[in-house]
């Protein structure tokens, strides 16, 4: 699990998400899809379809005035085309398991070498497997309240052009979102803005299969290469303190321009205290800065594992005083691969240490619950099985 500490980070990571049901493609995004579709279909097929299957005046008017994202992203796919004649190119888009194949690695190698300028020694099959294949997320199927099945788990969204794999979207499909982990493509399709096409295909998938939200990954405002993520709207940003979702609008972007760490809930608190025109730092921010200075030596030396989560004022982490309200004694515990589940309170050492005895097992479990969220405590299972067992 990765959870960023925006306060202590030089380049804070923010979680953002798009409401796919409200998404309206910009003119540039619409043109990107239409341009790619024309390339795939070719002039001959386009003219023949118009001749053999002419649209009525109302249909033509509707197409000109209303851009149906799902219709357009599938328009040039081979399975959707009316043939003959054949299209200029054959486009096939599939959702596949996130297993390693040499075909996928070839795309990864080209992308890392050409786009990220990595040397051959850094681009390995093992690195690709660890980074983008065989996720620990289990693949399964859920049924929504309307009876519609929805795939869950990690998948590779594969784009093949004329039989060649040219792009891969690495996705985590979760109950209420499509989470974009990584997108990679072969240099041969660079001119068609594959990153933009991939995002639009993923948003369409979110709409089509009922996931609702599209998560484009962490957003770092100070990184120019990440600005493309906010080209899709309406988006929302997770407040690091309150864990509420706020519109990622002009007001929020202006705040991010002024300072690296932004919490709208803190801004509102500051304004209510009459400091609306004063310095942007709150007392809490100042206090954290002092603590960060004190901890700088251990942070720089890579000793963060020795810093207790409850002592560093990390955004969104509940205070230690709230731990008394958590049922830490009944968290599921797995000690054998095929054995029964136990409870944390069944451990002999459990009652011998207090939650404040850090480092210690109970203190570590409290950290885990704080990081994941106490609302999920009933769904946590601690795996204590021996590695390889």
What do these coordinates show?
Residues 1-31 form the N-end aminoacyl transferase N-terminal domain. It catalyses: an N-terminal L-alpha-aminoacyl-[protein] + L-arginyl-tRNA(Arg) = an N-terminal L-arginyl-L-aminoacyl-[protein] + tRNA(Arg) + H(+). The chain is of the alpha+beta class and 389 residues long. The chain folds into 2 domains: 1-98 and 135-291, no CATH class; 318-383, no CATH class. The chain has helices spanning 27-52, 57-65, 69-74, 102-114, 125-132, 194-208, 250-258, 264-272, 283-300, 361-372, and strands at residues 16-19, 91-97, 140-143, 149-161, 164-174, 177-185, 213-215, 235-238, 245-247, 332-334, 341-343, 381-383. The strands form 2 sheets. Strands 1, 2, 3, 4, 5, 6, 7, 8 and 9 form a 9-stranded mixed beta sheet that branches. The chain has a 3-stranded mixed beta sheet with strand order 11-10-12, with no helix packed on it. The longest helix is centred in the first third of the chain and has 26 residues, at 27-52. The model is unreliable at 277-302 (pLDDT under 50).
